[in-house]
UniProtKB/TrEMBL annotation, chain A:
Function: Component of LSM protein complexes, which are involved in RNA processing.
Sm domain sequence ranges: 2-76
GO aspect biological process, one term: mRNA splicing, via spliceosome
Record-linked CDD domains: LSm2 (cd01725)
Protein name: Sm-like protein LSM2
Native source organism of the sequence: Bathycoccus prasinos
PROSITE patterns registered for this protein in UniProt: SM
Sorted UniProt keywords: mRNA processing, mRNA splicing, Nucleus, Ribonucleoprotein, RNA-binding, Spliceosome
GO CC list: catalytic step 2 spliceosome; Lsm1-7-Pat1 complex; P-body; precatalytic spliceosome; U4/U6 x U5 tri-snRNP complex; U6 snRNP
Keyword Nucleus: yes
Gene3D superfamilies in the cross-refs: 2.30.30.100
One Gene Ontology molecular-function label: RNA binding
Places the protein is found: Nucleus
Pfam families: LSM
UniProtKB/TrEMBL annotation, chain B:
Source taxon at top rank: Eukaryota
Family per similarity comment: Belongs to the snRNP Sm proteins family.
Keyword Ubl conjugation: no
Organism placement in taxonomy: Eukaryota, Viridiplantae, Chlorophyta, Mamiellophyceae, Mamiellales
CDD domains reported for this sequence: LSm8
Subcellular location: Nucleus
PROSITE patterns attached to this UniProt entry: SM
Gene this protein is translated from: LSM8
Gene Ontology molecular function: any one: mRNA binding
Gene3D superfamilies from the UniProt entry: 2.30.30.100
Name of this chain's protein: U6 snRNA-associated Sm-like protein LSm8
Principal cellular location given in the protein's record: nucleus
Assembly, per entry: LSm subunits form a heteromer with a doughnut shape.
From TrEMBL, chain C:
Protein name: U6 snRNA-associated Sm-like protein LSm3
Keyword flag NADP: no
Localisation: Nucleus
One Pfam family matching this protein: LSM
Organism: Bathycoccus prasinos
Alphabetized UniProt keyword annotations: mRNA processing, mRNA splicing, Nucleus, Ribonucleoprotein, RNA-binding, Spliceosome
CDD domains: LSm3 (cd01730)
Domain Sm, chain residue ranges per copy: 28-113
GO BP of this protein: mRNA splicing, via spliceosome
Entry keyword annotation includes Endoplasmic reticulum: no
Length: 94, 96, 114
């Protein structure tokens, strides 16, 4: 639930998603669900020369299970809030 | 929830599967597991030697576990693409 | 040499003492990860990927958020003629990185130098 909440704070922000097939997509986060499936709009593929597959796609759904990394914008990460939430979740998990 | 796909219903979608295939067709249905019903679909086969080859598939149910990405295709934009001029390697599979 | 029973008793005493200390107790693997919060860690992922960065958050799946991240990917290729193994490393830096836990193979609280 922690990262689900974290991603919800990134809705409307530009993120870069790297898939487990090495495809890197940049776009605006529209929504996220409990599986960390994500929906992006105004997407662009970072290496379009190598990956021309998405040239006619503007909005897309990415299955959470195929995500390797997500790069959030630097200014939208509040580390103090994250530390607190992580400690709280670690305590309640047991 | 996976109602994220609802706005894509009945429009042309582009699916990238976990084994690196690229399937394009009309989204007619989906469920929680991202299982998809795709009508009039075709596979786009990429190569470095030739342009994109279109392989007709018909009506498919794509199992959710094998779906990596679903894109909403802008049909106008798609028709303007000169796929015969595109040279690219096929996508790699999803690998942890 | 200490007998097995001595060792067992020591362990039991140690465990009893530790139940009184709350936040710093290490009873299970994820407790050790918790102690690394806000510290730099070394993370190994599948397919020859390594990360070094400050651990800002994690959950029970080992999903993580790292800060000031350095990623190293290693590609191994075999030269077709000489059969020599060529190892190439790519390095990149990212301010913040969310890492999906299913690719994680290990986390070390010490920042192991390459």
């Amino acid at each position: 639930m922690l990262f689900y909440s974290f991603f919800k704070t990134l809705v409307g922000k530009q993120i870069t998603v790297e898939l487990k097939n090495d495809l890197e997509i940049r776009g605006t986060l529209v929504s996220v669900d409990q599986y960390l499936n994500i929906k992006l709009e105004s997407v662009s593929v970072l290496d379009e020369e190598k990956y021309p597959h998405m040239k006619s796609v503007r909005d897309c759904f990415v299955r959470g299970s195929v995500v390797r990394y997500v790069q959030p914008p630097e200014e939208s990460v509040d580390v103090d809030i994250l530390h607190d939430a992580t400690r709280r979740e670690a305590r309640s998990a047991v | 929830m996976s109602s994220m796909l609802k706005p894509f219903l009945n429009s042309v979608i582009s699916i990238i599967t976990n084994d690196g295939r690229h399937i394009v067709g009309h989204l007619r249905g989906f469920d929680q597991q991202t299982n998809l019903i795709v009508e009039n679909c075709h596979e786009r086969v990429y190569s470095m030697e030739n342009g994109v080859e279109m392989a007709p598939l018909g009506l498919y149910v794509v199992r959710g576990d094998n779906v990596a990405l679903v894109g909403d295709v802008d049909e106008e934009l798609d028709q303007k693409l000169d796929l015969s001029a595109v040279r690219a390697k096929g996508l790699g599979p999803i690998q942890w | 040499m200490a007998s097995a029973s001595d060792g067992g008793e020591d362990q039991a005493t140690l465990a009893n003492q530790q139940t009184n200390i709350d936040e710093s107790t290490v009873k299970e693997p994820l407790d050790l990860v918790r102690l690394s919060l806000d510290e730099r860690v070394y993370v190994k992922l599948r397919n020859d990927r390594e990360l070094r960065g400050k651990l800002h958050s994690y959950d029970q799946h080992l999903n993580m958020l790292l800060g000031e991240v350095e990623e190293i990917t290693t590609i191994r290729e075999v030269d077709e003629e000489t059969y020599e193994e060529i190892i190439k490393s790519n390095k990149r830096s990212v301010p913040y990185l969310f890492v999906r836990g299913d690719a994680v193979t290990l986390i070390s609280p010490h920042e192991i130098r390459s």
